[in-house]
C-alpha cells in the first residue's frame, strides 16, 4: 500500500490499473472494421439470451472507441419493441437515463460519449429494467467484472440493490476477456452472463470475499 497524490493506493488498486492498461492496449490494436463486424455477431449472441428476449425494458449503453459495439444490439432491441434506456453522465459521475430513440437521436457528450437527446428520466429509472448491459474490460470465472474504474456503474449496482431490483446483469466482451480472475473488492456484485463473439458464458454467484468495477 502506498500514498499517491494524497490518496491511499492498495496493491489491489495497482493490479486493477495494470490489468486495465493491458486490456485497453489490446483493444486499441483492433481494426475498426473488425469492431463493427464483431458488434453484429454480439447482437445475435445476446438476443439468444432469455433474459434479453423476454425483457420489456433493458438498460444498455452506447459503445465508443474500441469497446465491443452495441449499436446493432440497440437497434435490434428497439425494433422488437423493447424499451431501451441509455445512460447520461452527470457531473458527479453518477448516471441519469433517457430512452433510446434511434441513432439519429444520439448527441455528443463529454469524454467522447454519445448520449440520448430525449427527456431525462432520473437515476432511479434503471430500477425499472429487467436486464442491464454493463460495459466492461473483462470478467472472471466468478462473474466479477472489471470496468474502466470511473465508478459510475458501481453506483448503478448499489442503486439496484437498495431498490430491491434484481435485473439480469450482462456484460459484452471480446474473446480473450473472460479471465481466470480479476482483482475484486468485498462489495462487488457478479454478473450472470458474459456475451462474446464465440458464445455465452454463464456464472454462478460469486463467493463472499469479492465481487465488479465501474465503467
| Number of strand segments | 14
Helix content: 25-40%
Classify the beta-strand content into a percent band: 15-25%
H-E order: EEHHHEHEEEEEEEHEEEE
At a glance:
The protein is of the alpha/beta class.
What would you note in describing this structure?
This protein has 215 residues and is an alpha/beta fold. Helix content is 27%, strand content 24%. It has 5 helices and 14 strands. The protein has helices at 11-28, 32-46, 50-53, 71-79, 152-163; strands at residues 2-4, 7-9, 57-59, 83-89, 95-99, 106-108, 114-116, 131-134, 138-140, 145-146, 168-172, 178-179, 193-196, 199-202. It has a 7-stranded mixed beta sheet. A 3-stranded mixed beta sheet has the order 10-9-12. A two-stranded antiparallel sheet has the order 1-2. Helix 4 links the parallel strand 3 (57-59) and strand 4 (83-89). Helix 2 packs parallel to helix 4. The chain starts with a strand and ends in a 13-residue tail after the last strand.
Amino acid at each position: 500500500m502506498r500514498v499517491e497524490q494524497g490518496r491511499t493506493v492498495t496493491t489491489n488498486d495497482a493490479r486493477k490499473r495494470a490489468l486495465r492498461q493491458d486490456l485497453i492496449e489490446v483493444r486499441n490494436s483492433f481494426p475498426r472494421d473488425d469492431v463493427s463486424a464483431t458488434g453484429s455477431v454480439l447482437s445475435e449472441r445476446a438476443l439468444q439470451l432469455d433474459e434479453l428476449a423476454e425483457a420489456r425494458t433493458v438498460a444498455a449503453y452506447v459503445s465508443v472507441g474500441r469497446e465491443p459495439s452495441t449499436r446493432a444490439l440497440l437497434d435490434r432491441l428497439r425494433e422488437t419493441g423493447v424499451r431501451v434506456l441509455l445512460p447520461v453522465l452527470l457531473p458527479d459521475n453518477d448516471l441519469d437515463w433517457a430512452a433510446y430513440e434511434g441513432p439519429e437521436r444520439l448527441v455528443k457528450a463529454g469524454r467522447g460519449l454519445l448520449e440520448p437527446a430525449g427527456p431525462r428520466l432520473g437515476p432511479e429509472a434503471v430500477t425499472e429494467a429487467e436486464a442491464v448491459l454493463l460495459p466492461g474490460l473483462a470478467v472472471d470465472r466468478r462473474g466479477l467484472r472489471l470496468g474502466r474504474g470511473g465508478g459510475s456503474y458501481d453506483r448503478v449496482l448499489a442503486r439496484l440493490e437498495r431498490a430491491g431490483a434484481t435485473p439480469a446483469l450482462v456484460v459484452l466482451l471480446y474473446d480473450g476477456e473472460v479471465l481466470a480472475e480479476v482483482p475484486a473488492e468485498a462489495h462487488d456484485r457478479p454478473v450472470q452472463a458474459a456475451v462474446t463473439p464465440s458464445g455465452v458464458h454463464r456464472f454462478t454467484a460469486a463467493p463472499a470475499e469479492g465481487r465488479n468495477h465501474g465503467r
